[in-house]
Amino acid sequence: MRKTAKLVIAASTVATLLSAMALAPQVVVADEALAAEGKKIAENRKKGNCFTCHNYEGAHLAGNIAPPLVSMKDRFPDKAKLRAQIWDATAANPATMMPPFGRHEVLTEKEIDAITEWVYTL
User: Fold this and answer.
1) CATH number at residue 69
2) pTM for the full model?
3) Among 105, 102, 96, which Cα is nearest to 116's?
4) pLDDT of 19-48, one tens digit each?
């Protein structure tokens, strides 16, 4: 009886792990696509134009008046705080030079989500 129980537990554990592995690539692909879209928006001079002030790997003629975009997961463990910073940096620092992209409707909510996803990969 114990052998049967152990076998059932082992089989269900393997099935759970395999189903989780099957779902993981779909989620990663969606995040990668959103991050790629975010990078396009961030580098668009009429939208984010992030490299004017920030330096990050791969930026062409990047600025140096804002913090470099590196180790973003370490600096913002809570992705919601990073998104809030992009949406309106003046909430945390009224003297910031960063435009409030969301509050001034420079970027849509969807565009801010995409940029947040991209910045979080840096």
Assistant:
1) 1.10.760.10
2) 0.71
3) 102
4) 665 555 544 455 889 999 999 998 898 888
Q: Rounded distance, CA 118 to CA 111, Å?
A: 11
Q: Are 101 and 119 in contact (CB under 8 A)?
A: no
**Tokens in use for 39?**
């990078």
**Tokens linked to 30:** 């969606």
What span, in angstroms and rounded, lies between the C-alpha atoms of 45 and 41? Answer: 8
User: Which structural domain, as residue segments, surrounds residue 62?
Assistant: 31-119
* Residue 25: inside a domain: no
User: How far does the chain reach from its first CA to its final CA, in angstroms?
Assistant: 53
Q: Cα separation of 35 and 13, whole Å? A: 33
Q: Are 114 and 38 in contact (CB under 8 A)?
A: yes
Residue 29 token pair: 């692909």
Question: How do residues 61-93 score in pLDDT, each as one tens digit?
Answer: 788 889 999 999 999 999 999 999 999 999 999
